[in-house]
């Protein structure tokens, strides 16, 4: 009989089921059984797989291997998932981070998304849903890049370095505020529904409340608009959604 400990001999494993892979997925998960399931899912989809069983190992692998995407558990030995998410985004803001956790509270999902996570999948999960979420996040990241520095009114936004200035004074934006603003600047003058923003920016096909979008836009206006109560750039289109006008 093959014991689970025999199957996962180390906290790190690199597998490639095919001579040519679509890229490397880093899985950070401490449960050997879940490691096995996730490894099988992604190798069957033609990805190479790296597995880390603790936070520090996951961070080291991220730094050295620069994976295509990360599947991240929250409850980990060593560095917890929330802290890892922040560290990953500070190292490479472009790498998609998909949180996979049994924690399903809305407040935790919102917190992770504000820390920079690209999506959140709750255990138990559908393998098809998980791979679809990963692939969608990768596609969003691979869209043709626009100019990294975007200027409007008295604002200057550097999306590459994730820095913002208004009237030449630094403005502090969260990783998710940068992500939302980038989607607006990629879709100038287009009316964007709350549902579209949740799907494309937050990565959710459904969400308990669209107030998530409204609250995030309110924060952006407070930081970037001259008069947040009478915005000139991030506009509300009543009955439809929002529109960005430079």
TrEMBL record:
Boundaries of every Response regulatory domain copy: 24-138
Signal sequence residues: none
SMART domains (UniProt xref): REC, Trans_reg_C
GO terms classed as biological process: regulation of DNA-templated transcription
Listed SUPFAM superfamilies: C-terminal effector domain of the bipartite response regulators (SSF46894), CheY-like (SSF52172)
Superkingdom of origin: Bacteria
Keywords linked to the UniProt accession: DNA-binding, Phosphoprotein, Transcription, Transcription regulation, Two-component regulatory system
One Pfam match: Trans_reg_C
Cellular component terms per the entry's GO annotation: cytosol; protein-DNA complex
DNA-binding region: 147-246
Molecular function as annotated in GO: phosphorelay response regulator activity; transcription cis-regulatory region binding
Record PTM 4-aspartylphosphate, positions in chain: 73
InterPro entries membership: CheY-like_superfamily, OmpR/PhoB-type_DNA-bd, Sig_transdc_resp-reg_C-effctor, Sig_transdc_resp-reg_receiver, WalR-like, WH-like_DNA-bd_sf
CDD domains (alphabetical): REC_OmpR, trans_reg_C
Annotated OmpR/PhoB-type domain residues: 147-246
Keyword Ligase among UniProt keywords: no
Name recorded for this polypeptide: DNA-binding response OmpR family regulator
Species this chain originates from: Tunturiibacter empetritectus
């Amino acid at each position: 009989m093959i014991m689970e400990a025999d199957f996962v001999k180390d906290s790190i494993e690199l597998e490639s089921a095919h001579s040519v892979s679509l890229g490397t997925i880093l899985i950070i998960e401490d449960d050997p059984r879940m490691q096995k399931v996730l490894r099988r899912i992604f190798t069957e989809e033609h990805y190479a797989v790296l597995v880390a069983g603790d936070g520090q190992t996951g961070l080291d692998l991220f730094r050295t291997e620069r994976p295509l995407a990360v599947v991240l558990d929250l409850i980990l030995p060593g560095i917890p998932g929330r802290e890892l998410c922040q560290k990953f985004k500070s190292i490479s803001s472009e790498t998609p981070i998909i949180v996979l956790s049994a924690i399903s509270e809305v407040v935790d999902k919102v917190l992770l998304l504000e820390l920079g996570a690209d999506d959140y999948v709750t255990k138990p999960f559908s393998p098809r849903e998980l791979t679809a979420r990963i692939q969608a996040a990768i596609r969003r990241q691979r869209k043709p890049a626009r100019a990294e520095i975007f200027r409007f009114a008295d604002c200057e936004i550097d999306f590459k370095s994730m820095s913002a200035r208004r009237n030449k004074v630094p403005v502090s934006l969260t990783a998710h505020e940068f992500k939302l603003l980038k989607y607006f600047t990629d879709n100038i003058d287009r009316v964007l529904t709350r549902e579209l923003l949740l799907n494309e920016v937050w990565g959710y096909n459904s969400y308990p409340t669209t107030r998530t979008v409204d609250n995030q836009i309110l924060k952006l206006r407070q930081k970037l608009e001259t008069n947040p109560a009478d915005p000139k750039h991030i506009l509300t289109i009543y009955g439809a959604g929002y529109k960005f006008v430079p």
